[in-house]
Amino acid sequence: DQQVKQNSPSLSVQEGRISILNCDYTNSMFDYFLWYKKYPAEGPTFLISISSIKDKNEDGRFTVFLNKSAKHLSLHIVPSQPGDSAVYFCAAHGGSQGNLIFGKGTKLSVKP
Amino acid sequence: DTEVTQTPKHLVMGMTNKKSLKCEQHMGHRAMYWYKQKAKKPPELMFVYSYEKLSINESVPSRFSPECPNSSLLNLHLHALQPEDSALYLCASSPTPDLRELDYNEQFFGPGTRLTVL
């Protein structure tokens, strides 16, 4: 049973437009969420995180929104660039031992 | 030095071989992790070392044996693997195990070792 769900396996966006990647979770004990970006043949690279005490965190072109009541978070990339094309993983952390639970990922393609 | 390094990048081994994967970080991180990632799947946690002690073993078969010789090094010893163990093995580290303790406390991942078991 998936505790972290990314229901869109892929997303295609035009350069300059907004990319919105969604993530849902089922475990209300999760209290810290992270987004990672992964290129083929590389390890995941950390992008941005959000604690459950916040509903928004922004870093440059990347903004993460958290709706605790809906157990939903989203990553907004504005403006999208071709170099953003990668697989994006949502991950949740719910304990003191650092174990992250990853969603299946969404492959983002940004077209010039 | 702000990266996690992993060696080798690629490894091909037979089912009777014994091999080891190595992971190293010099960021002073006190938590280190092994993940396994199959094609088109998310990374799955295998082991967590917290302050050089094994704190989580996610029911991993004993043919995988982790070792943390010191705070900068993490090894994964492999013996009698099966072809279905072929995957990308990722190492990660974080300043502390509890990611909520600090701001900007995330897991940094290495590039992975692509393992093929024949």
- Gyration radius of chain A, in Å: 13 Å
Number of strands of chain B: 11
Radius of gyration of chain B: 14 Å
Give the low-pLDDT segments of chain B.
none
Q: What is the beta-strand fraction of chain B?
A: over 45%
SSE topology string of chain B: EEEEEEEEEEE
| End-to-end gap of chain A | 38 Å
Query: Roughly how many Å apart are the termini of chain B?
Result: 36 Å
Please state the average pLDDT score of chain B: 90
Q: Helical amount among residues of chain A, as a percent range?
A: under 10%
Major beta sheet summary of chain A: 6 strands, mixed
Structural class of chain B: mainly beta
The total strand number of chain A stands at 11
What characteristic shape of chain A results from the CA principal axes?
globular
Strand content of chain A: over 45%
Structure notes:
The complex is a heterodimer of chains A (112) and B (118). Chain A is built from no helices and eleven strands. Chain A is an all-beta fold. Chain B is built from no helices and eleven strands. Chain B is mainly beta and 118 residues long. At the A-B interface, strand 4, strand 5 and strand 10 of A face strand 5, strand 9 and strand 10 of B.
